[in-house]
Amino acid sequence: MADSAASFDLGAPPAGYAVRLRGVTKAYPNGTTALGPFDLDVRSGEFVSLLGPSGCGKSTALRLIAGLSAPSSGGVLVSSQAPRRRGEHSIGFVFQEPTLMPWTSVRGNVSLPLRLARASRADTEARVSEALAGVDLLDFADAFPRELSGGMRMRVSLARALVTEPDILLMDEPFAALDEITRFRLNDDLLALWRKLRKTIIFVTHSVFESVYLSQRVIVMTPRPGRTGAEFRIEALEPRGADFRTSADYAAQCREVSLALARTSEPVRA
Protein backbone atom coordinates (compact mmCIF):
# COMPACT_ATOMS: atom_id res chain seq x y z
CA MET A 1 0.00 0.00 0.00
CA ALA A 2 1.58 3.29 -1.05
CA ASP A 3 2.48 5.90 1.53
CA SER A 4 1.04 8.66 -0.64
CA ALA A 5 -2.44 7.18 -1.01
CA ALA A 6 -5.19 9.73 -0.50
CA SER A 7 -7.75 9.50 2.31
CA PHE A 8 -11.45 9.46 1.51
CA ASP A 9 -13.67 12.43 2.28
CA LEU A 10 -15.63 11.92 5.47
CA GLY A 11 -17.48 15.22 5.33
CA ALA A 12 -18.12 17.21 8.52
CA PRO A 13 -17.77 15.48 11.90
CA PRO A 14 -20.84 14.97 14.06
CA ALA A 15 -21.65 17.89 16.32
CA GLY A 16 -19.65 17.75 19.53
CA TYR A 17 -16.79 15.66 18.11
CA ALA A 18 -13.20 16.83 17.69
CA VAL A 19 -11.58 13.85 15.92
CA ARG A 20 -12.89 11.04 13.74
CA LEU A 21 -10.83 8.26 12.13
CA ARG A 22 -12.50 5.70 9.89
CA GLY A 23 -10.78 2.65 8.41
CA VAL A 24 -7.37 4.30 8.76
CA THR A 25 -4.28 2.33 7.82
CA LYS A 26 -0.64 3.28 7.58
CA ALA A 27 1.83 1.22 5.55
CA TYR A 28 5.45 2.02 4.78
CA PRO A 29 7.44 1.38 1.59
CA ASN A 30 9.30 -1.52 3.25
CA GLY A 31 6.00 -3.38 3.49
CA THR A 32 5.39 -2.80 7.21
CA THR A 33 1.78 -1.99 8.07
CA ALA A 34 1.93 0.01 11.30
CA LEU A 35 -1.73 0.74 11.85
CA GLY A 36 -5.18 -0.39 11.10
CA PRO A 37 -7.71 -0.49 9.99
CA PHE A 38 -8.29 1.80 12.97
CA ASP A 39 -11.45 3.70 13.94
CA LEU A 40 -11.60 6.40 16.58
CA ASP A 41 -14.11 9.02 17.71
CA VAL A 42 -13.13 11.63 20.29
CA ARG A 43 -15.61 14.16 21.65
CA SER A 44 -14.68 17.81 22.07
CA GLY A 45 -13.19 18.32 25.53
CA GLU A 46 -12.68 14.59 26.13
CA PHE A 47 -9.50 13.08 27.60
CA VAL A 48 -8.70 9.81 25.79
CA SER A 49 -5.64 7.59 26.19
CA LEU A 50 -4.27 5.20 23.59
CA LEU A 51 -2.67 2.26 25.40
CA GLY A 52 -0.80 -0.60 23.80
CA PRO A 53 2.50 -2.43 23.31
CA SER A 54 5.50 -0.85 21.62
CA GLY A 55 5.13 -0.64 17.85
CA CYS A 56 1.34 -0.98 17.81
CA GLY A 57 0.79 2.32 16.01
CA LYS A 58 -0.15 4.64 18.89
CA SER A 59 2.31 7.35 17.89
CA THR A 60 1.47 6.78 14.23
CA ALA A 61 -2.18 7.55 14.98
CA LEU A 62 -1.18 10.83 16.65
CA ARG A 63 0.95 11.84 13.67
CA LEU A 64 -1.95 11.15 11.30
CA ILE A 65 -4.31 13.25 13.42
CA ALA A 66 -1.74 16.06 13.52
CA GLY A 67 -1.31 15.98 9.75
CA LEU A 68 2.39 15.14 10.09
CA SER A 69 1.82 12.03 7.99
CA ALA A 70 -0.84 10.90 5.51
CA PRO A 71 -2.86 7.71 5.92
CA SER A 72 -2.36 4.96 3.37
CA SER A 73 -6.11 4.47 3.33
CA GLY A 74 -9.12 5.58 5.30
CA GLY A 75 -10.10 9.02 6.51
CA VAL A 76 -8.90 11.39 9.23
CA LEU A 77 -11.17 14.26 10.15
CA VAL A 78 -10.29 16.97 12.67
CA SER A 79 -12.72 19.68 13.69
CA SER A 80 -11.26 23.13 14.34
CA GLN A 81 -12.76 26.39 15.45
CA ALA A 82 -12.49 29.30 13.03
CA PRO A 83 -11.50 32.01 12.54
CA ARG A 84 -8.19 31.85 14.40
CA ARG A 85 -5.71 34.58 15.20
CA ARG A 86 -2.23 34.65 13.70
CA GLY A 87 -0.07 32.05 15.41
CA GLU A 88 -3.01 29.92 16.56
CA HIS A 89 -3.34 26.28 15.54
CA SER A 90 -6.15 23.79 15.95
CA ILE A 91 -3.68 21.13 17.19
CA GLY A 92 -0.84 21.22 19.71
CA PHE A 93 1.68 18.36 19.93
CA VAL A 94 3.80 17.37 22.95
CA PHE A 95 6.49 14.82 22.09
CA GLN A 96 8.19 12.29 24.35
CA GLU A 97 11.32 14.44 24.49
CA PRO A 98 10.98 18.19 25.20
CA THR A 99 13.21 19.06 22.18
CA LEU A 100 14.02 22.51 23.53
CA MET A 101 16.55 24.83 21.95
CA PRO A 102 19.45 24.96 24.46
CA TRP A 103 20.73 28.36 23.33
CA THR A 104 17.62 30.32 24.23
CA SER A 105 15.57 30.90 27.35
CA VAL A 106 12.32 29.29 28.44
CA ARG A 107 10.50 32.36 27.12
CA GLY A 108 12.31 32.06 23.79
CA ASN A 109 11.41 28.39 23.45
CA VAL A 110 7.74 28.94 24.22
CA SER A 111 7.46 31.93 21.90
CA LEU A 112 8.91 30.08 18.90
CA PRO A 113 5.60 29.02 17.25
CA LEU A 114 4.25 32.57 17.51
CA ARG A 115 7.44 34.12 16.13
CA LEU A 116 7.39 31.70 13.20
CA ALA A 117 3.79 32.78 12.53
CA ARG A 118 4.84 36.45 12.78
CA ALA A 119 2.41 37.22 15.57
CA SER A 120 2.76 40.73 16.97
CA ARG A 121 5.31 41.27 19.72
CA ALA A 122 2.70 42.44 22.22
CA ASP A 123 0.44 39.47 21.51
CA THR A 124 3.39 37.07 21.71
CA GLU A 125 4.56 38.42 25.07
CA ALA A 126 1.08 38.24 26.57
CA ARG A 127 0.38 34.73 25.34
CA VAL A 128 3.79 33.38 26.39
CA SER A 129 3.32 34.78 29.90
CA GLU A 130 -0.15 33.24 30.10
CA ALA A 131 1.12 29.83 28.90
CA LEU A 132 4.01 29.84 31.38
CA ALA A 133 1.71 30.85 34.21
CA GLY A 134 -0.56 27.96 33.27
CA VAL A 135 2.26 25.44 33.85
CA ASP A 136 3.63 27.31 36.89
CA LEU A 137 6.87 28.39 35.21
CA LEU A 138 6.48 32.15 34.91
CA ASP A 139 9.26 32.67 37.48
CA PHE A 140 11.62 30.65 35.24
CA ALA A 141 10.92 32.53 32.01
CA ASP A 142 14.52 33.71 31.70
CA ALA A 143 16.15 30.40 32.66
CA PHE A 144 17.82 28.15 30.09
CA PRO A 145 16.87 24.48 29.54
CA ARG A 146 20.13 23.26 31.11
CA GLU A 147 19.08 24.94 34.37
CA LEU A 148 15.80 23.02 34.59
CA SER A 149 14.86 19.59 35.85
CA GLY A 150 13.40 17.00 33.49
CA GLY A 151 9.91 17.71 34.75
CA MET A 152 10.33 21.44 34.27
CA ARG A 153 11.60 20.96 30.72
CA MET A 154 8.50 18.93 29.95
CA ARG A 155 6.37 21.77 31.36
CA VAL A 156 8.11 24.12 28.94
CA SER A 157 7.24 21.77 26.08
CA LEU A 158 3.61 21.73 27.23
CA ALA A 159 3.54 25.53 27.44
CA ARG A 160 4.94 25.76 23.90
CA ALA A 161 2.09 23.55 22.67
CA LEU A 162 -0.52 25.55 24.56
CA VAL A 163 0.73 28.98 23.49
CA THR A 164 -0.92 28.55 20.08
CA GLU A 165 -4.25 28.04 21.91
CA PRO A 166 -5.09 24.72 20.21
CA ASP A 167 -8.47 23.03 20.45
CA ILE A 168 -6.80 19.60 20.51
CA LEU A 169 -3.69 18.56 22.43
CA LEU A 170 -1.83 15.43 21.30
CA MET A 171 0.64 13.99 23.83
CA ASP A 172 3.04 11.20 22.89
CA GLU A 173 4.29 9.55 26.11
CA PRO A 174 5.39 12.91 27.53
CA PHE A 175 6.18 11.62 31.03
CA ALA A 176 7.71 8.23 30.18
CA ALA A 177 11.31 9.25 30.95
CA LEU A 178 10.53 10.87 34.32
CA ASP A 179 10.82 9.38 37.78
CA GLU A 180 7.60 8.18 39.41
CA ILE A 181 7.24 11.08 41.87
CA THR A 182 7.66 13.69 39.13
CA ARG A 183 5.35 11.72 36.85
CA PHE A 184 2.59 11.61 39.49
CA ARG A 185 2.92 15.36 40.06
CA LEU A 186 2.76 16.15 36.34
CA ASN A 187 -0.23 13.84 35.94
CA ASP A 188 -2.03 15.91 38.59
CA ASP A 189 -0.93 19.16 36.97
CA LEU A 190 -2.13 17.99 33.55
CA LEU A 191 -5.54 17.04 34.95
CA ALA A 192 -5.85 20.44 36.64
CA LEU A 193 -4.96 22.15 33.37
CA TRP A 194 -7.45 20.01 31.44
CA ARG A 195 -10.24 20.82 33.90
CA LYS A 196 -9.45 24.52 33.54
CA LEU A 197 -9.03 24.72 29.75
CA ARG A 198 -11.22 21.78 28.64
CA LYS A 199 -9.00 20.99 25.68
CA THR A 200 -9.51 17.74 23.82
CA ILE A 201 -6.55 15.56 24.84
CA ILE A 202 -5.39 12.37 23.14
CA PHE A 203 -2.64 10.85 25.26
CA VAL A 204 -0.34 7.98 24.26
CA THR A 205 1.12 5.83 27.04
CA HIS A 206 2.51 2.37 27.82
CA SER A 207 1.31 2.65 31.41
CA VAL A 208 -2.00 1.07 32.46
CA PHE A 209 -1.88 3.02 35.72
CA GLU A 210 -1.32 6.36 34.00
CA SER A 211 -4.05 5.76 31.42
CA VAL A 212 -6.67 4.89 34.05
CA TYR A 213 -5.69 7.77 36.31
CA LEU A 214 -5.81 10.45 33.61
CA SER A 215 -8.47 9.43 31.16
CA GLN A 216 -12.17 9.51 30.72
CA ARG A 217 -11.75 6.72 28.19
CA VAL A 218 -8.95 4.22 27.48
CA ILE A 219 -8.50 2.62 24.06
CA VAL A 220 -6.48 -0.60 24.28
CA MET A 221 -4.74 -1.27 20.98
CA THR A 222 -3.62 -4.58 19.53
CA PRO A 223 -0.05 -5.33 18.42
CA ARG A 224 0.96 -4.09 14.98
CA PRO A 225 -0.94 -3.35 12.88
CA GLY A 226 -2.77 -1.50 15.62
CA ARG A 227 -6.52 -1.84 15.93
CA THR A 228 -8.93 -1.27 18.79
CA GLY A 229 -8.72 -4.34 21.01
CA ALA A 230 -10.84 -3.05 23.89
CA GLU A 231 -12.32 0.19 25.18
CA PHE A 232 -13.00 1.31 28.75
CA ARG A 233 -14.87 4.26 30.18
CA ILE A 234 -13.14 5.23 33.42
CA GLU A 235 -15.49 5.94 36.30
CA ALA A 236 -14.16 8.30 38.95
CA LEU A 237 -15.36 11.22 41.01
CA GLU A 238 -13.86 14.56 39.99
CA PRO A 239 -11.50 16.10 40.71
CA ARG A 240 -9.22 13.07 40.74
CA GLY A 241 -6.31 13.04 43.13
CA ALA A 242 -4.50 10.95 45.73
CA ASP A 243 -7.75 9.51 47.05
CA PHE A 244 -8.57 8.02 43.65
CA ARG A 245 -5.03 6.81 43.02
CA THR A 246 -5.05 4.83 46.29
CA SER A 247 -8.64 3.60 46.07
CA ALA A 248 -9.88 0.05 45.54
CA ASP A 249 -11.95 1.33 42.61
CA TYR A 250 -8.84 2.61 40.84
CA ALA A 251 -7.05 -0.69 41.44
CA ALA A 252 -10.03 -2.63 40.09
CA GLN A 253 -10.22 -0.56 36.91
CA CYS A 254 -6.46 -0.87 36.40
CA ARG A 255 -6.83 -4.64 36.72
CA GLU A 256 -9.57 -4.74 34.05
CA VAL A 257 -7.53 -2.66 31.63
CA SER A 258 -4.39 -4.68 32.34
CA LEU A 259 -6.20 -7.97 31.65
CA ALA A 260 -7.55 -6.58 28.37
CA LEU A 261 -4.07 -5.42 27.38
CA ALA A 262 -2.70 -8.90 28.10
CA ARG A 263 -5.47 -10.54 26.04
CA THR A 264 -5.05 -8.26 23.05
CA SER A 265 -1.28 -8.67 23.14
CA GLU A 266 -1.37 -12.46 22.98
CA PRO A 267 0.02 -13.87 19.71
CA VAL A 268 -2.55 -15.23 17.28
CA ARG A 269 -2.40 -19.04 17.15
CA ALA A 270 -3.12 -20.98 13.98
Summarize, please.
With 270 residues, the chain is α/β, with parallel strands linked by helices.
Characteristics:
single chain; 270 residues; alpha/beta; Rossmann fold; six-stranded mixed beta sheet; three-stranded antiparallel beta sheet; 8 helices; 9 strands; 35% helix; 22% strand
Structural account:
- The structure is a single chain.
- The chain has helices spanning 58-66, 106-116, 121-134, 150-162, 180-197, 208-214, 242-245, 248-265, and strands at 17-27, 33-43, 47-51, 73-78, 91-94, 168-172, 200-205, 217-221, 228-233.
- The protein is 35% helix and 22% strand.
- It has 270 residues and is an alpha/beta fold.
- The chain has a six-stranded mixed sheet with strand order 5-6-7-3-8-9, with helices on both faces. Strands 2-1-4 form a three-stranded antiparallel sheet, covered by helices on one side.
- The protein folds into two domains: 1-79 and 168-265, P-loop containing nucleotide triphosphate hydrolases (Rossmann fold); 100-166, no CATH class.
What do we call the CATH topology of the largest domain? Rossmann fold
In the CATH hierarchy, the architecture of the largest domain is: 3-Layer(aba) Sandwich
How many structural domains?
A: 2
User: What do we call the CATH homologous superfamily of the largest domain?
Assistant: P-loop containing nucleotide triphosphate hydrolases
Structural class based on helices, strands and sheet pairing: alpha/beta
Order of helices and strands: EEEHEEHHHEHEHEEHH
Proportion in β-strands: 15-25%
Question: In whole angstroms, how far apart are the ends?
Answer: 25 Å
Unreliable runs:
1-10
On the 0-100 scale, what is the average pLDDT?
A: 90
Q: How would the global form be characterised?
A: globular
Radius of gyration based on Cα positions: 19 Å
